[in-house]
Amino acid sequence: MRIQKKKSGIVEGDLTPMIDMTFQLIAFFMVLINFTKVEQDQRILIPLSEMAKPPETPYEDPITLQVLEDGKVILRGMTLSMDALRSELITRRQFYQAQGVQPSDIVLIIRADKDLEAQHLQELIEVCQEARFITFALRAQAEEST
Amino acid sequence: MKVRKQGAGVQEEIQLQMTPMIDIVFQLLVFFIMLFKIVLPEGDFNLKMPAGAPREGAPDPDQLPPMKLHLFSHPSGYLRGIQLNEKSFASNLPIVEATDKNPYGENPQIDNAFLALRLHLMGVVGTDRGPNTRQATAEVEIDPDPNLKYQHIIQAITAISGFKDESKKTVKLIEKIKFSKRRPTS
Questions:
Q1: What is the pLDDT, as a whole number, of residue A32?
Q2: Which among A26, A114, A139 has the least Cβ separation from residue B149?
């Protein structure tokens, strides 16, 4: 009778289910990934509203003004005071008019912090009106109504 | 001398090396996880606000005169009172500050006050909808206290711009909304 010694081999776990789950996760993130550049400054917490609805068609060439709690305005990554914003908006208005686009057709998206004082909002609107922009979109976080 | 042939009978097992593939798969997973960003849905209130042009000619008796919505604030900026023309809907509202559990400082008394405002406007505007109806021509001018928080302005616009009926369909209320001129801070 020959007694065979069992060699202690290296035990490998079956990796197939783990690879399956990893592929599932990759597929999940690939489907959800969104490469569109969304202008959303994380410092700004916009108010909630059940009536705020996303626009049915995307705006053509909108200008997004992000307003911090202290009233400073961020336009295309630049933090501006009201005077600097005024001259920047006038420059843009002249650029659009040179292309034959009326400033009243340009939508100004205002993403303002919920704790912003009303006087800063009114001042911002007045500055935009001085630059002849009159179409505004006040942005709020869509809230499901109960 | 024994010569061993590597004959056709001997078959070598080809083992696939899974380790590099798993490495690359994990790299891809980390790449997509890093790029993943949760974007909450955001909606808009579209307002057309031309720089104050006074109405020309005699006022139309069939149209509602512009209504003025005063929003009063506490010194901290939280909403204290709501008044539409001469009618008051709330005064001395309590302050509910934002906390971790209530990040937006939701206050049921403010919600009730704005609901009363909305019901009043529904009665004023009527149920007719269309181009020349009271609803289409009704205008509200929002006059907030200078230090009032923006979230209360959005609450006011939410209350007066429309509502959702039983079938969750949006019914428009006031479409012409504008802001008053800045008042000097006291």
A1: 86
A2: A114
The model's pTM is 0.80
Start-to-end CA distance of chain B, whole Å, equals 113
Structure tokens at B15: 């083992």
Tokens describing residue A95: 């650029």
A141: nearest CB among B26, B28, B42: B42
pLDDT at A4: 62
- The residue among A27, A9, A14 whose CA lies nearest residue B18 is A14
CB contact under 8 A, A118 and B181: no
Question: Mean per-residue pLDDT for A120-124?
Answer: 94
Strands A48-49 and A73-75: unpaired
Cα B172–chain centre separation: 16
Classify the complex by whether its ipTM is higher than 0.90, answering yes or no: no
pLDDT of residue B7: 55
* DSSP per position, B85-129: TTEEEESSPPP----SSSTT---HHHHHHHHHHHHHHHHHH-S--
Q: Look at residue B2 and tell me whether its pLDDT is greater than 70.
A: no
Q: Which residues of B touch A33 (CB under 8 A)?
A: 32, 35-36
User: What residue ranges define each of the domains in chain A, with the CATH number in brackets?
Assistant: 48-142 (3.30.420.270)
Q: Across the interface, do B44 and A109 touch by the CB < 8 Å criterion?
A: yes
The pair of three-digit structure tokens given for residue B115, joined into one six-digit string: 């609901």
Taking CA atoms, what residue in A is nearest to B71? A118
